[in-house]
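Duplicate of #3305? Posting structure anyway:
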């Protein structure tokens, strides 16, 4: 899943970038007219930071720089048009350069700060090795999905995946090979699921998959395709690893995130206990077993 926008840009992310730029420039123009009408007695300098800030948060430093340049130019034009007098004709131009420098520094520091905050938030939401969702993010998203299921009465499928004999790869081939394997698994799964689906790394060699609005037949077909693709990748790379999958399709809303995930987790461990290397899907309320790869 691509996930929501991260960092401060999420607050403006739903607004098209051209709309934000035009709105910022309109605000700059409004402030310039106000500056001109009120003359030199009243200062509106701090208010020019508002459009600079909005443009920077929405689209980054370079857009903020463009609005900064527009702000300094409009401010200079308003000063000259208002008939302010200076002891030297260069002074208003010097002031414009100083203002532009201040706006630029403000935009640069703001873009660096928001970038750092976005990176920290991304680290909390996504696993740094595989770029799958973190366990915390997965649970939060699962809670939202359950709320939606209660309104729509659509089915939802939760699955747990465990890599059989993964430790042997680390022991025999090294941790670099193990990391490569985990990234490969994540890439294969992400390439097969929809944007509304959520794939997460639970920890170690365990993964979770959430499939909103997905019945047992669709889920069965997807999980079997995934297992086949993963088996082919393991063979291609010479990794002695297979995949055990336990999944539950809820035809009625599950009582909680924990209850939903526990059923899928129990099924996955049942697969592990029964010989590994299989897909087992059940429905809730029980209406028969869905899939098994044999």
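Output from current build:
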């Amino acid at each position: 899943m691509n996930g929501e926008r991260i960092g401060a840009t999420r607050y403006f992310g739903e607004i098209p970038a051209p709309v934000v730029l035009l709105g910022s420039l309109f605000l700059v123009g409004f402030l310039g007219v106000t500056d001109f009408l009120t003359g030199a007695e009243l200062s509106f300098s701090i208010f020019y930071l508002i459009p600079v800030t909005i443009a920077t948060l929405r689209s980054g430093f370079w857009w903020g720089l463009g609005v900064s340049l527009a702000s300094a130019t409009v401010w200079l034009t308003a000063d000259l048009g208002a008939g302010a007098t200076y002891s030297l004709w260069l002074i208003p131009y010097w002031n414009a350069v100083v203002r532009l420098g201040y706006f630029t520094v403000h935009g640069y520091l703001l873009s660096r700060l928001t970038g750092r905050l976005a990176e920290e938030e991304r680290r909390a939401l996504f696993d740094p090795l595989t770029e799958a969702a973190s366990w915390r993010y997965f649970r939060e998203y699962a809670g939202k999905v359950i709320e939606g299921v209660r309104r729509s009465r659509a089915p939802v499928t939760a699955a747990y995946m465990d890599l059989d004999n993964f430790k042997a790869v680390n022991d025999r081939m090294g941790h670099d090979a193990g990391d490569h394997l985990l990234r490969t698994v994540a890439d294969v799964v992400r390439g097969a699921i929809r944007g509304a689906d959520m794939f997460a790394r639970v920890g170690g060699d365990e993964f979770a998959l959430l499939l909103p609005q997905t019945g047992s037949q669709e889920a069965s077909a997807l999980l079997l395709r995934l297992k086949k693709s993963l088996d082919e990748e393991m063979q291609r790379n010479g990794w002695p690893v297979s995949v055990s999958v336990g999944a539950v399709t809820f035809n009625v809303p599950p009582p909680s995130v924990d209850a939903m995930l526990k059923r899928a987790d129990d099924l996955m461990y049942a697969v592990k206990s029964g010989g590994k290397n299989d897909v087992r899907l059940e429905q809730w309320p029980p209406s028969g077993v869905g899939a098994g790869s044999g």
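Confirmed duplicate; merging threads. The CA atoms of residues 68 and 103 lie 5 Å apart. The radius of gyration is 28 Å.
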